[in-house]
Design brief:
Radius of gyration: 26 Å
Helix content: over 70%
Number of strands: 0
Number of domains: 2
Structural class: mainly alpha
Distance between the termini: 52 Å
Strand content: under 5%
Order of helices and strands: HHHHHHHH
Shape: flat
Mean pLDDT: 75
Low-confidence stretches: none
Length: about 220
């Protein structure tokens, strides 16, 4: 019995589509394990890279002399710091999209690990990891919130600097230098006001900005 060529073609396409769906489901099932394995390999590689020239005798001596209570306390403070950063980042994401605090925290820790490894260029790791782990978060939204976060950080530093100039009284022989510092402070204050204006504008136009970045 002969088969119709069109039906054979459709059947072949259906089989390929079914295989693709099954493969995607299988990858989705083991996705977290694959991500964990990749991160574990990356962590081992980073540890090896930084430890390959260490004097392990000195490391052992330093560990023996250290106070484990202070080490545990420092570790707890660092984890709380990352948790606070994750909460803040999630707050920036809230007007744009919903995000899991757990996934935001994981992306934050991975991102700052990348910053420790390759410097500020590692900032791009955070939004990439978050978009990979939480499908509700678009990459453009994650990148934009990172820029807003950095803008807030810069504004805070400028604000502290400008406020300190109001109460700082220099020595008589440093009056001329302080005059230049005050001018710089006023410039920074102007930048701060401009940054606030940009944030207000972004709050009103954020959907259009995200859409433009996506395209």
């Amino acid at each position: 019995m002969l088969r119709h060529p069109i039906s054979c073609g459709c059947s072949s396409k259906f089989v390929k589509l079914a295989r693709a769906i099954l493969l995607r489901r299988a990858l989705g099932k083991y996705r977290k394990y694959l991500e964990f394995a990749a991160l574990l390999i990356l962590a081992v590689g980073i540890i090896w890279w930084f430890s390959r020239r260490l004097d392990w005798g000195q490391v052992k001596l330093a560990v023996q002399k250290s106070d484990w209570r202070l080490i545990i306390l420092a570790g707890g403070v660092i984890l709380l710091g990352y948790l606070w950063r994750a909460i803040r980042w999630r707050a920036f994401l809230t007007p744009l999209t919903k995000a899991s605090l757990r996934e935001v925290w994981i992306a934050t820790t991975v991102g700052f690990g990348a910053v420790l490894t390759i410097g500020r260029a590692g900032e791009v790791v955070r939004p990439v990891v978050l978009a990979m782990r939480d499908k509700r978060v678009r990459p453009a939204a994650a990148f934009v919130t990172i820029m807003v976060e950095r803008l807030y950080d810069s504004m805070t530093v400028v604000l502290f600097f400008a406020v300190n100039l109001l109460w700082f009284r220099p020595a008589p022989d440093m009056a001329s230098d302080f005059g230049r510092a005050r001018i710089a402070g006023l410039i920074f204050l102007g930048v701060l006001i401009l940054g606030i204006a940009v944030l207000i504008w972004f709050r009103r136009r954020s959907p259009a900005v995200i859409k433009w970045i996506d395209h």
